[in-house]
Amino acid sequence: MRINQYLAACGVASRRGSEALVVAGRVTVNGEIATLGTRVEPGDEVIFDGAVIAPQGYAYYLYHKPVGVICSMSDPQGRDCVGDVLRRMEVPEAVVPVGRLDGDSQGLLLLTNDGEMTNAILHPSHGVGKTYRVQIRGFLTPEQRRDLARGVELEEGMTAPATVRHLGAWSGGDVLAITLREGKNRQVRRMVAAVGGEVYHLQRVAIGTLTDENLVPGGIRKVTAVELAELRRGIGMDG
Predict the structure, then answer these.
(1) How far from chain centre, in Å, is Cα 124?
(2) Which of 33, 36, 41, 64 is buried most deeply by CB count within 10 Å?
(3) pTM (2 decimals)?
(4) Rounded to an integer, what distance in angstroms lies between the CA atom of residue 126 and that of residue 89?
(5) What pLDDT score does 57 carry?
(6) Where are the alpha helices (DSSP H) in the chain?
(7) What is the CATH number of the domain that holds 220?
């Protein structure tokens, strides 16, 4: 098993995050500083930041991130972050967020130590939809909504087609449901701005088949076995 896969299986970080830890020289295997090419075999001793680590059972939590909580395990600026929440909630497993959600947005986050599932959800080739309930300042024309669905030009290129549904209106404008199958930085806000609109409030309401309209901001719970099986099937993993 590659060292980044091993670290992800131990719940240390995602595979990509684990690569950064290895490059930083924070991991040794049998007393040797690991490199990105290091492989871990049964019986090897792996040490991260001075502590021996080993793979643990997989855990899956659904968390409704409130506005103001940062999607990281620590924050050098001292802002409240997911890592702080997990410590306050005394979550026993070393789970990490799958993907990100902006500090000024709220909604569902999957927290897990399952690196394979993390990769499947985040990789664009799997096309896993993330759905957002979006309150717009003012009203978009049907053509603007069609432009959102077709894809818009951002600095890094065209966005992939999205699913856009008009849910109705709030006191200040439209309410849309937007489903993305990619994860560019602040993508929904930038897409809406690209067609001439402005997001007032943004909430992620679904990750693939995983959703819970009754989970209040700040709430966290374990993903059920039925939910997990549906999610795995939906992202092309074995059920």
Answers:
(1) 13
(2) 64
(3) 0.77
(4) 32
(5) 80
(6) 3-9, 15-23, 82-88, 115-122, 142-150, 187-194, 225-234
(7) 3.30.70.580
Contact yes or no for 95/63 (Cβ under 8 A):
no
Q: Does residue 116 sit in the same domain as residue 225?
A: yes
Encode pLDDT of 148-176 as tens digits: 999 999 999 999 999 999 999 999 999 99
H-helix or E-strand spanning residue 223: none
- Select from 11, 31, 52 the last residue of a domain: 52
Give the confidence band of 238 by pLDDT, cuts at 50, 70, 90: low
Residue 81 lies in a domain: yes
Number of H helices, E strands in the chain: 7, 15
Evaluate the CA torsion angle 100, 103, 108, 113 in order and state its sign.
positive
For 230, counting Cβ atoms within 10 Å of its Cβ (0-12 exposed, 13-18 middle, 19+ buried), the class is: middle
Q: Which domain holds residue 153?
A: 129-207
Residue 102 designated active-site: yes
Which is the catalytic residue, given 102, 114, 147, 174? 102
Backbone angles phi, psi at 20, to 5 degrees: -65, -35
Token pair for residue 111?
Answer: 């927290």
Residue 231's Cβ-count burial label (10 Å; 0-12, 13-18, 19+) is buried
Helix, strand, coil abundance in the chain, percent, nearest 5: 25, 30, 45
Distance CA 34, CA 24 (A): 10
End-to-end CA distance of the chain: 23
